[in-house]
Fold these 2 entries.
Entry 1:
Amino acid sequence: MSLRVIHLLDDGRLEGGGRRALAALQAVSSLCPELLGVVMAPPGAVHEAARALGFRSVVLGSRPQMVAALLRELWRDRHSAVLANGAQHSLWAAALRALLRGRGAQWHVVQDGSDGPGGLGAARLLARLGLRFVAPSTFVRRRLEAQGVPWERVEVIADFLPAAPVAERELFTGAGLRRVVMLTALEHADRVDLLLDALERQGALRGLRFDIYGEGAEAVALRERAQRHPNVNFHGARGDAAQALAQADLLLHTGPRDGAGRRVLQAFAAGVPVLVPNSGAAGDMVVPGRNGWHFTANDAAALSLRLQQLMGATAGEFNAMAEGGRRTLRRELNAQRQGARWAALLGARPKATQPAPLLAAASDTGAAG
């Protein structure tokens, strides 16, 4: 018996919620061949990518169009499962399902733990209406609980990589940290300014090279400030960010409230050690001394000290952290494990045979998503 899953998106771009939606549908379909996936979103690249993966897509131009299209889809199969990452989408889906007496599962998918429409902004209202939530990390689950969402109404399904990395780093053979890469949005919440604070505190860090990939509202201000630091290079959201990561000694992540930790996953897959704050999803994913290192969140002095310590680390220490990251992916944060959780959530019955290898849904740039 087939299972139809309708995934409503409030953005048609192939990043953030769109990328995660396709990865989830792809992971479930690799385990459950009977899955019929339907992606409904505003115009954007997500539609072409969805069709390339064998899913139907419906382009939404306005709220009335969204309501009419959703009504048609639910009328076609009232037992369809519904996922939505926008509050309005979740509310309309709940209303139409109640009208049609639909029996399929419905979940509100929290993208990253931000306070926007795809995050925590309407969590309290949705919880009062009895909706259930999917969070990308325990960190976001805790934030939902702080908004009044009962703990037991939130399912945590971690982000994962639907394909092998574009490039992997070779084993470390020499001691010491030399090249650091950041894959990040240049927004206030991502705290790239902490790096510049650390450089201004400690002159010894001038011997390190920092390559930063990404764009955002703070790009101009950060670039101007970085003119005093010739060892800091801003590259924008370029397509060669994955290759640059594979040539680095360390991925530095500074955002203290990151909800999914995708860039950490990329570093794990590429065999690159990571340094992250001791908060957010990244802080939960990294166990110091096992698969990376922590520094105290929002503390430039702590970041500076940790970077200085890593300048004296041995090749063996770097290789151990890189292998620890790969082990975390293999054992905990792989597509098959997370796909099985999505399948159980949606009421699918995974096939008993070995799942087929997953294909890439999209390539990444330096921008966070």
Note: The CA atoms of residues 53 and 79 lie 23 Å apart.
Entry 2:
Amino acid sequence: MNKIIYTLVATFALLALLSCNTDKLDNQTYMILDSVEYVQEFPKEFVLQNKKDTGIDIVGVWDFVIQDSIMILSTRKNNGNWKIFSLPELHHLGDFLNIGDGPLELSSSPSVSDKMKLTKENGTLQAYIYDFEYGKLLKLDVYKSIQHKELFISLINDSLPQYLFDFIVIDSNTYFCKEIGDMETQQLRYINNEGNRTMNYTMEKLNLSSVTSGMNYNILSTMTKLSEQHKIIVEMHFGLNYINLYSLDGLFEKTICLEGKLDNIRLIENLVWDERIFRFSDIRVYDEFFGVLYINEEEQIYQKSRKKLPSILLFDWNGKPIVKLKLPNFISSFDIDFIQNELYTFDIQSDQFFKFDLSDILTELKSNKTRSN
């Protein structure tokens, strides 16, 4: 009996240790929030099967995004940089955006999945595109450009900071920004509202994280998305084994760790680049959940001879794990067509573009949510 009691006490002590108390952790060496949850198992796991080749064979594609019944591909081309296709037929609808020095041209190929916002305005689809080198914001009328087969684009702001690591359009005058600071040892988050900078407590805490002077500040790099519906920001760390969630109003925050121990920035600094772990590659936000592409492989192996097949991890907007989707092939980005219930995947190393039927999985998720409510 005493042994049972001891076991229970030890178990509860361990759970308390792994729960939300991060007071003893140094915020300079851990880019985390006050509430930390450790997730090592998912309620549901599915091995994706029966992949289908999309038939897309375009040289120079590097990422893509799905919105309603269209897919936009970003390519390395200087003219017609974005290629747009209909779904599910994949009919070519046009090529748009040019690289150049003109006021309505871009400095380099803009991502369709990062530092860009797709949103419906007055029934038409608009794309807000941040130019990394020029520090300007452009607005592309996607539907109008498709309809008239010519570029409908306007300049929204030409005085934004250059070389922002993360950029999110919150509204027409308000932007979330992340830039280098403190002698290139920190990456600083703030809200830019008509040129005025503010930050809430959550941002201030994350901004404390730093690398040692002279070290590569990309250890702190993230891919950041905003759920417009929930007003929650998701930060996916490329080289750290955790994800940060926090609301714009500062009332909700959570760190989700994918292992039993948080990655320590100082310990990562002590590793040569080849030995560091490439944790995540992509993130997408949806109404009911968000998903991250989990790589979790040493950099040298990932770049040369990938061995671990990746997984797509889905979480609800409270940070709770929902589903792990195990992939049968290597990918670098993904997105979901909710009209056809299909998952599209792309791999930048092989140029392979596949899709998977998610009908049964999404139906099960909906039924589980209905029962839980």
Note: Helices lie at 2-17, 142-148, 201-207, 265-269, 299-305, 359-372.
